[in-house]
Amino acid sequence: YAYDVAARPGFYTTPSGTPTSTYYADGRLKTTATLLGTAPVSPPVSYAYATHGLRGGGVKTTVTTSGPDIPSFATATYSDLAGRTFLTESPGYDGATLSAETFFDERGRATGRTSTGRPATRRVLNGLGETTQSWTDSNGDGAFNDTPIDGIRDSVTLAETDWVTEDGLACRRTRQWVRDDSGTDILLATAY
Asked: Given CA atoms 153, 157, 158, 164 in this order, what sign does their dihedral have?
């Protein structure tokens, strides 16, 4: 190990190379790279931090990967004032931006997640963070619902977890349904 002036590990050597990191004065990561001798093993990565005004403000972290043989690309994450990451943006095909967003209730618990791309998805979570609904925008209308477009409905899987008594014992039961094209929920699985 080698340390910088703030006593943070700057680099160390492993059989697969020497990962090297630099830091900003406040201790946040600035750059990382791994070298085997003088040859790069992984592309260099840089980190930039800025404030943002989404959802009451917070920190936007941009991670940029670049190198001589790969195109530069950046991923941005947005955190709120409580430090929870609620939005991630990354490069997609043909210049598109892929987004993944997390929603929180008033207690700070994650209650849902959505993502763009083909197809877009949405997850609804209960108070324990368990998925209760999983939607896929199968018809591409940008909404998550039961409205068919050209005969195609969004697909949805529903899950429910509860406590039941089986043979005199309290058991946690999880059931899963899938919605068919007629809008009927069909029980797929039950687990104890």
From this structure: positive
The reported pTM is: 0.68
Residue with structure tokens 């029980």? 187
- Which amino acid is located at 48 in the chain? A
pLDDT tens per residue across span 102-125: 998 888 888 888 888 778 888 888
Task: Identify whether the C-beta of residue 24 lies closer than 8 Å to the C-beta of residue 9.
Answer: no
Separation between Cα atoms, residue 88 and residue 76, nearest integer Å: 6
